[in-house]
Every structure is written in structure tokens, then in C-alpha cells.
Specification:
By secondary structure, chain A is α+β, with helices and mostly antiparallel strands. Chain A has 9 helices and 8 strands. Chain A folds into 2 domains: 64 residues, Arc Repressor Mutant, subunit A (Orthogonal Bundle), CATH 1.10.10; 173 residues, Beta-Lactamase (2-Layer Sandwich), CATH 3.30.450.40. Helices cover 47% and strands 18% of the residues of chain A. Chain A binds a DNA duplex through helix 1 and helix 3.
Chain lengths: 261, 261
DNA sequence: AATTATGTTCCATATAGTGGAATAAATTGA
DNA sequence: TCAATTTATTCCACTATATGGAACATAATT
């Protein structure tokens, strides 16, 4: 929810993105006046911004003046996904981790305050692919999220934690910054993060951090499983597999994309 | 390829989108100078535009100064897809069409010169979902593309056809505007479009047009099948099913979203 | 028909984007 | 290793573009 500091460096573009975010965050297609309440812009200004977004195909307007995100985003995202070098490099490693564990494997990267899923490998492909790719979850209550946070340089970590708004998804969701901070320290020591049913009841996972040399992006790999079928002990056994997967993705990145990736 | 008229009404935002398009169109992650050649902007200007896009997460820069589309697009597109009212309304109808035919069903909407796939229903879910959703194909050699074109008002159709650049994907791809024009007339009469292996050899389909009352968007539904297994005759038999599917989606839209959608 | 809510247009003003040129950084070649 | 060359980044006077308050138009509501 909390999204934007009053001042931002990206001028007109930033404002346009604010509008898109506002539409994305709305529970149902917002009308013009709804948006007027959500983004801090005067009528005339917002109206032109929205018109421009519509003209560019980033927003689409229905007959009743309500707005939806436009299909042009789908088109771009499709490219963003299929061309993504990190994902391309990681994919075979994820597949291998899946083969070794038999459970669902996720790859997620840190984006803003959230972790967005870049890829997913699971056996029963009955579930719609899109149900995860591109989805975003909070960092503080997911395996990949906490793993990714642990890979951030200290200053950056502080900044991000300070900006978080904690919400208890389950009884075991970490309640505040202090608890998260303690857990991150532990993850940094062990190189492994757990989600102990902190986001969804009955679902837990093991995850390992992943980052580019320069830390210009941080990510996480995880193996997720239902608690009733896979006990915590098994998750512990998988620690080396997950760690190895993360390590080999990083090595692969380094060798393929040059030492500086 | 042909993308932009010299003048466009969306100012700064439009230019930013041009840059995104240029990155999306590149066969491999372009560097700054590559982009400089593709978008018509002076160095200083382009540099700031790119910086802004990176800061907003719409572009991401790798260690070697090459640019990729950013993950924020995935996040937005995920929302764009899951919230899309048209798709939500259409989904059960697509599923029904799939059950009746046993073959792959597509839903695509017209976006610029292309048709982008909004949904896909197929039995063997082995294929990755993202392999189609958000993908774009030319209008003039796909079933949904031609169907969608046929639903455009005359003036709009002329304009779009004039802007097309024809490329022969297969021996049966329509070669030019005249041939397409003739076929569109036929589709308007019959209400059914065929792709006779015009995009991919061995793949053909039946499609029907679909549009919102006000024509502010046009789309198509199709049943696609391999030619070796499903003969043309069978496609003909499916005509009523496809037409009914399109009709019932439109009716459903009208009733759910109000008479004006 | 009058009232209220909602959407759209206008235009003087200021802000934010522009772009040519200078600087810095990385890469290549001798 | 150092110069030559390519490539990326910064700077800033200038101006095009976005701004926003207010007037106007168009539904919806009473």
C-alpha cells in the first residue's frame, strides 16, 4: 500500500507510474474520481495523465469510465519474461532442484518492497502458470523474500526494513522489524531462510539467497511444500540442495555473462 | 518494426514507451549506443530517459551496460491479466469451447498492428502458460487477427491495413493488402475466419470476431489444431461452436458490465 | 426541471525535459 | 604501459511540455 515518497526523481514518468500503480492497487476498476482520491494530483493534470496512458495502451477505459491496466503491459511483460537473462540462466538449475526434491521450486527477485516471482517449476502443471509468474508477495513473510533481504548490503537492508508495514497473514508471521532483523542475521549466518507457514497456513519452504556480484539485484530460490506432507525435518535435509542450486546459478551467471554481471 | 509516426500526442510518456519498445524489439540486450541508433533522440536526452526508466524499474541495466525490460513490468502485467474483466467474463466460455472440440482455444485482442493473446485453454498443460499469454502475432496471418480486423469499422480497417508490412511466414501467408482486404470481406459475410497454415506450417484454425458494443476494442476467439490430425472439414463443422462462443461472450459482457460496455 | 456529482476542456504560467558540448570512464591497440 | 578510440555520463542555458485553477459540459439524481 505505502508506495511513494512525496518527492521522486523521475518526473513525469514517475507520476504516470503512480497512476498505473493506483489502478493496479484498486480492488475493482476505479473511475476517474476514485483515482483522483488515490493519486495526489489536481483534476486537470490527472485527466491528461490518464488520457496519455490510455492513448499509449497502458490503461484502457471501459464504457462506464472505469479504468483497467492495458494489454500493452502484457505484451511487454511477455518479452520481459522470455528475454530475461537471469531467468534463462537459472531455469535448468531450478528444474534440477525440482527433480531432486519433487516439490515446487520458485525463483523470485526483489522489486521495491516486494518479491516478484520470476519463475516456478512444479510437477502438476494443472495450476495456471500465471498464477505465480509476475505475482508479488511481501518480503518479510516468504522464504525467497527473506533470503533476498539477507543478500542486501547493510545500509540498503536497514532502509528497506524501516519502510515495511507488517501485517499478520498467519499466527507465525513475523510481527515487526526487530523480529525480522533478528531472523535476517540468522539467515546471513546460515545462508538459509525458512518460511514457517508465515504467509499461508499449511505451506512452508526452504530458501537460499542469490545476488549478482555487484548486488544490483538480489533474489532467492525456494522449495515450497505443504506442511502436512513434508515435515520440517525434510526441509532441513534439503538445505544443501537449495544452497547448491543458488550457488550454481550464480556461478553460471558469472561465467556466461562475464565476470561483471 | 514500423512503429511510430514522427509526431505523437503523448509527449514525454510516449518517448519513454518508444525506448521500452526499442529494448523489447532488440534481439539481444542493447547497450546505450545501440539504443541511440534505434530511437531518434540526442545522447543527453536518451541518457536521462533511460536513467528514469531504470529508476522506475521498467528497465534494468546489467553490469556490461546492456539493458533489459524490468521486472516491474511482470508485476503490472500479472495484475493486468488477473483483473482483466473481458478475460474473466470470457474464460468459462473458452473452457466450454475447449471441452466441445478437444483442441486448443485462444482469445486474442487487437493491440496496435498485432494481436496479443489474452488467454489460452488447452488440455495438455505441459506447455508453459507464458508461452502464449501476452505473446503477439501479426494480424494478417492468424485466425484471431483476421477475425478481429473484420470487426473494425471501415475507416479504421483501411488505416490499419495500409500500415501493415507483409511477410511470408509460410507459402500460404496472404501476400498483400489486396488479398487481405478480399479475405476480410469474406469474413464479414460469413462471420468466420480461417488460418490455413498461414502463420505456421501444419497449424490451422477457425476463428470468430468479437467486439465491445462501442468497438473500443476488438478481439477474436479461435480453435487451433494440427492439420495432420484435424482436417479442414472438421474445422468447418466447428464453425457454429466458435461463432456461438463469441456470441455468448459478448452477451455475457453486455449483461454483466452493463449495456454500455 | 433543478440540483448534484462527475467528467472534460482551456490557457497563462512555471516546471521539467531538451540537447549540444564538455568530461569521464572503459576498451582497444601498439 | 601508455596513447588512441570508443562508449558512457554530466552539465546547464534554453525552451517545449506539463501544470492546475477555473470555467464548461455531460450525465446521474431528486
Amino acid at each position: 500500500m505505502a508506495r511513494r515518497d512525496d518527492a521522486n526523481g523521475t518526473g513525469t514518468l514517475g507520476k504516470a507510474m503512480d497512476v498505473l500503480d493506483a489502478v493496479a492497487a484498486a480492488p475493482s476498476p476505479p473511475r476517474f474520481t476514485d483515482l483522483l482520491g488515490k493519486v495526489d494530483q489536481p483534476r486537470g493534470t490527472l485527466h491528461r495523465q490518464v488520457s496519455n496512458l490510455v492513448e499509449e495502451g497502458l490503461l484502457s477505459v471501459r464504457g462506464d469510465h472505469s479504468y483497467e491496466l492495458g494489454v500493452r503491459l502484457l505484451r511487454l511483460a511477455s518479452k520481459a519474461w522470455s528475454d530475461n537473462q537471469f531467468r534463462l540462466v537459472a531455469e535448468p538449475h531450478l528444474r534440477r532442484l525440482h527433480d531432486l526434491t519433487g516439490e515446487t521450486v520458485h525463483l523470485g527477485v526483489l522489486s521495491g518492497a516486494e518479491v516478484v516471482y520470476l519463475d516456478k517449476v512444479e510437477s502438476r502443471q494443472a495450476v495456471r502458470m500465471h498464477s505465480q509468474i509476475g505475482n508479488a508477495s511481501p518480503t518479510y513473510c516468504t522464504g525467497v523474500g527473506k533470503a533476498a533481504l539477507s543478500a542486501l548490503p547493510e545500509a540498503e537492508l536497514e532502509r528497506r526494513i524501516a519502510a515495511l508495514a507488517f501485517r499478520a497473514y498467519t499466527p507465525s508471521t513475523l510481527p515487526d522489524a526487530a523480529a525480522l532483523r533478528r531472523e535476517i542475521d540468522e539467515i546471513r549466518r546460515s545462508g538459509i531462510a525458512y518460511d514457517r507457514e508465515e504467509h499461508e497456513p499449511g505451506i512452508h519452504c526452504v530458501a537460499a539467497p542469490l545476488h549478482s556480484r555487484s548486488r544490483d539485484f538480489v533474489a532467492g530460490v525456494s522449495v515450497t511444500a505443504p506442511a502436512y506432507r513434508i515435515p520440517m525435518a525434510r526441509l532441513h535435509e534439503w538445505e544443501p540442495l537449495v544452497r547448491d542450486c543458488a550457488r550454481s546459478i550464480m556461478e553460471d551467471m558469472a561465467s556466461r555473462l562475464g565476470p561483471r554481471s
